[in-house]
Amino acid sequence: MKILVMNGPNLQLLGRRKAEFYGTRTLPEIETMLQNVAAELGVDLEFMQSNHEGVLVDRVAAAITDGTDGIVINPAAYTHTSIALRDALEAARIPAVEVHLSNVASRDEFRKLSLTAPMCIGQITGLGADGYEWALRALVRYLVSKKMNE
Ligand code: DQA
After folding, report:
1. Percent of the chain with pLDDT over 70
2. I need a labelling partner for 55 at 20 to 30 A (CA). Which of 88, 89, 108, 116 fits?
3. Pick from 100, 149, 94, 148: nearest CA to 120
4. H, E, C per residue of 121-144
5. 102 lines ligand 1 (CB under 6 A)
6. pLDDT tens digit sequence for 35-51
């Protein structure tokens, strides 16, 4: 099983962004943690991060034909602005789980709307870097039970 882990703009700066929202772990540290979880679950991970909306849109489109079974995505600021990323997720029809380190529901008004979440099977928000682990576990469980019911 192949899972694509996507991170949007400014998440390469984790570790130096506001710790009260985003914690202190860096993106490479989060990716190492996820590799350990993936080894336990027996799934393959591919990581990508981009600050560019079109690059994220292109990667979702490429996932349609490259054998990607599921997507863990933190679209970061594009969560609240990107109709293009939302449309890509809708067209791809690949099960995706949206992650936010911070509790977007308790922050600025403009962060309360996620354009991308309706195209995902679920959303994990406010649990810090551990949220990526819960997203991966939830996604794999979803994909396994979907396969069993096929
Ligand atoms: C974020 C929340 C977004 O509102 C913000 O723009 C980010 C990170 C999070 O993980 O909490 O860059 O997606």
Report:
1. 100
2. 108
3. 94
4. CEEEECCCCHHHHHHHHHHHHHHH
5. yes
6. 999 999 999 999 999 99
Ligand 1: residue of 20, 25, 49, 102 to mutate (most ligand atoms within 8 A of CB) is 102
Cβ of 76 closer than 6 Å to ligand 1, yes or no, is yes
Determine the distance separating the centroid of ligand 1 and the alpha carbon of 92, expressed in angstroms.
23
Q: Which domains does the chain have, with CATH numbers?
A: 2-148 (3.40.50.9100)
Atom of ligand 1 nearest to the CA of 80: 4
Take residue 8 and report the two structure tokens written for it. Answer: 């949007």
With a threshold of 0.85, does the pTM exceed it?
yes
Burial of 138 (0-12, 13-18, 19+ CB in 10 A): middle
6, 34 Cβ separation under 8 angstroms = no
Say if CB 148 and CB 114 are below 8 A apart: no
Q: Which residue has the tokens 């682990």?
A: 133
The DSSP annotation for 82-104 comes to -HHHHHHHHHH---EEEEESS-G
